[in-house]
């Protein structure tokens, strides 16, 4: 009976040690993300968008930038879908319809450029670091262009004539997308400069 209790206590201790170690690793990864996000223009958005991926990121700068870029691509795809669905609204003013249509095109371009960037990083992995600067230059160019596309979308809603819920919701979505993409670019630039 005493041996069974001793065995149970030992197993419980091992389980708690394992769980504690996992919690320590997750806390360290979250701390790494929080510290890394300080180099971005939107650190709070950065921490909020990446903390859920702490176990994947661990303490890797490379994994951090890949995850940030993937998060940006996911956000661009959902934003494109959101804006595309707005075209189905009944009663849109002609200028609203045109601005939304242009925004769909800009967000589609942004998705395309971010997709190319993700693929370029995979190509870089397959080339085992050869032509590193060339690959990173392509990624930097495409991500910068994606930010321009995102900002161009909101430019289409300038002026009071388009004020209203649609303008507010698009600007809010695009602003968040541009912030996440800007943060990804900050990690890309930082990583490229260090290598």
From TrEMBL:
GO terms for molecular function: pectinesterase inhibitor activity. CDD domains: PMEI-like_3. Transmembrane segments: none annotated. Residues 28-187 form the Pectinesterase inhibitor domain. SMART domains: PMEI (SM00856). InterPro entries: Invertase/methylesterase_inhib, Pectinesterase_inhib_dom, PME_Inhibitor. Gene3D superfamilies: Invertase/pectin methylesterase inhibitor family protein (1.20.140.40). Pfam families: PMEI. Residues 1-22 form the signal peptide. Keywords: Signal. It comes from the Eukaryota. This is Pectinesterase inhibitor domain-containing protein. It comes from Anisodus acutangulus.
